[in-house]
Design goal:
- It contains 14 helices and eight strands.
- By secondary structure, the chain is of the alpha/beta class.
- The chain has a single domain, classed as Rossmann fold (3-Layer(aba) Sandwich).
- An eight-stranded mixed beta sheet has the order 1-2-4-3-5-6-7-8, with helices on both faces.
- Strand 1 and strand 2 form a beta hairpin.
């Protein structure tokens, strides 16, 4: 599978591993794309799984609708459900990093029957995140408010300031540019619209239900954007076998910086099912 369609949009996807195997879906974060999983995927394929890693809405050139409301959480979730359907399977092992983790939490809460296991990376359960806001997370999340501004974030992220703006320790300037440059101006606006759609996403029903599938949450203590309070609170919102894994000394960019350790945690969770 090189691409799939949903709601008139065309999504690019990397499809690796044996066609008849259990499926692992990998969801990237901002401002990355499916290439962030390049060093994780071989471990999963080597263990006998089929791995699907899409460029999500706004990141695939054929899937960049205009307007903020086109990026509300329900649309992001439906895009991934369409991928699962296109793969011809009922259930998948779901993995998400950063914004991909938020989509994974939401899909798991809305459609638990489509998810065998969940591995959420960096971003905690939405209710844990909200609980942590007055406990230090709000200061770490300043950029979420800044990204609501028109035009200025696009201009800043298109310069060499992107690495510092996004807390880029763990990535080189070349790595950050390799993610941002393919977006172009239109794609960067589309990616930022994930943030700009938050006021509508938060009004949607079921966007933050409890997880009822076996879940691993992976957090790194060098993450400048996501603090310990929300990380430690996530267990309260999972009604299933749960593991909280901390990667010491690792930045926010876990799939790039610690792919071997992350792959081991994913495989451990997948095998538990």
């Amino acid at each position: 599978m090189d691409n799939y369609s949903q709601d008139g949009l065309v999504f690019e996807v990397s499809d690796s591993g044996p066609a008849g195997a259990e499926v692992v879906v990998l969801l990237h974060g901002f401002p990355q794309n499916r290439r962030e999983w390049d060093h994780v995927t071989p471990h999963l394929v080597g263990a006998g799984y089929r791995v699907l890693a899409p460029d999500q809405r706004g990141y695939s050139p054929g899937a960049r609708p205009a307007g903020r409301r086109a990026y509300v959480q329900s649309h992001l979730v439906d895009d991934v459900v369409a991928l699962i359907d296109a793969a011809g399977v009922q259930k998948v092992h779901l993995v998400g990093h950063d914004w991909g983790a938020l989509v994974a939490w939401a899909l798991t809460s809305r459609y638990p029957e489509r998810v065998s296991t969940l591995t959420a990376v960096s971003v905690p359960h939405p209710k844990a995140f909200a609980w942590a806001m007055p406990r230090g997370q709000a200061l770490k999340s300043w950029y979420m408010a800044a990204f609501q501004l028109p035009a200025l974030p696009e201009r800043l992220l298109a310069t060499d300031r992107a690495l510092a703006l996004l807390g880029g320790s763990g990535l080189t300037a070349e790595q950050m540019n390799a993610y941002i440059e393919p977006l172009g101006r239109h794609g960067l606006t589309a990616a930022l619209n994930w943030y700009r759609a938050l006021p509508w996403s938060q009004r949607e029903k079921g966007h933050a239900r409890r997880s009822t599938v076996p879940t691993t949450y992976v957090w790194s203590d060098g993450d400048t954007a996501l603090g310990r309070a929300g990380a430690e609170a996530t267990e309260r919102f999972v009604d299933a076998p749960y593991r909280f894994a901390v990667l010491p000394g690792v930045s926010h960019w876990i799939p790039d910086e610690a792919p071997d350790a992350l792959a081991d945690l994913i495989l451990e969770r997948v095998a538990s099912s």
